[in-house]
Design a protein that fits this description.
Elements lengths: L2 H18 L6 H8 L2 E8 L5 E8 L15 E2 L6 E7 L2 E8 L7 E8 L3 E11 L8 E4 L4 E4 L5 E5 L2 E10 L7 E3 L10 H6 E6 L4 E16 L5 E16 L8 E8 L2 E8 L2
């Protein structure tokens, strides 16, 4: 049994039990359950294992944002690296809520024992008549990654992360939106002038200058896949060779500083 199959088995089994439990005595309710709109989220751990999470919207507001018997399933696993819905300070693998509302967002709890790269992605959407946007909101940087287009990828240090990551369906805080087309920072002109990112064709280097200390640097290809991550930079000037990704014609360079995040699309030629 592969890693993904092993981890999703418990989730699918729990989902089956829940679907049979509250409506087994009532056909009308069973039909209502089939109309639940579902958002399935995948979490890839630093070790490469994948865990599945489920968020369900009940059209009749049969469930709430709190704990609802028959709609929510506690996370009974004990993984060293984990991601769960947080309901009333407890960890859940399945969360049922009321009718879909694009202004609502739902908190996630991330628990990391093995520092490394993680990924949060959208698996599937079910029973939505029209297309919706699904975002991963990072409250620390006030950024929204559009999961319907690209995966959220991040290097995460060991620790517990509560009240930082949320599943959202709109830009509730006027934050920066990352998508597969631009990944461009929506900041005012003054902030845009604080960090400069360019490509030095003669030396084949990315050249970055800022009036703030650069804390972190990431490079993505145009499909949204991270191809370079540099932590603990702690300098205002940086020259970075591009020899490790010379097969990339274009890339998105993301620079983190005390003032926020700056993105620049570069041609590596």
């Amino acid at each position: 049994m592969n890693k993904q199959t092993y981890l999703c088995f418990i989730v699918l089994l729990t989902s089956t039990i829940i679907s049979a439990n509250p409506f087994s005595k009532n056909t009308a309710k069973a039909m209502a359950y089939s109309d639940i709109q579902r958002v399935r989220i995948d979490f890839t751990m630093p070790t490469g294992y994948i865990k599945h999470l489920l968020l369900g919207f009940t059209p009749n507001n049969a469930a709430s944002d709190g704990v609802d018997y028959g709609y929510d399933a506690l996370s009974i696993d004990d993984f060293p690296d984990d991601l769960n819905w947080i309901i009333e300070e407890e960890s859940y693998v399945i969360q049922g809520v009321g009718a879909f509302n694009s202004s609502n967002q739902y908190p996630l709890g991330m628990f990391i024992s093995n520092a490394g790269d993680i990924s949060i992605s959208l698996d599937t959407l079910e029973n939505f008549e029209t297309d919706i946007d699904v975002f991963l909101f990072d409250s620390l940087y006030n950024t929204y990654t559009l999961l319907t287009e690209i995966d959220f990828q991040e290097y995460v240090n060991e620790g517990t992360y509560l009240n930082r990551y949320f599943i959202s369906f709109g830009n509730n805080t006027n934050g920066t939106i990352y998508n597969s087309y631009t990944m461009q920072l929506a900041v005012d002109e003054n902030n845009m002038k604080e960090t400069s990112v360019s490509f030095l064709r003669q030396s084949k280097e990315i050249y970055i200058t800022s009036n703030q200390n650069i804390s972190k640097l990431e490079v993505y290809n145009l499909l949204g896949k991270r191809i370079l991550n540099k932590e603990h930079v702690n300098t205002k000037t940086l020259r970075l060779p591009t020899t490790s990704f010379t097969n990339q014609a274009y890339g998105i360079v993301r620079v983190y500083s005390n003032e926020g995040v700056t993105n620049k699309k570069l041609l590596f030629k």
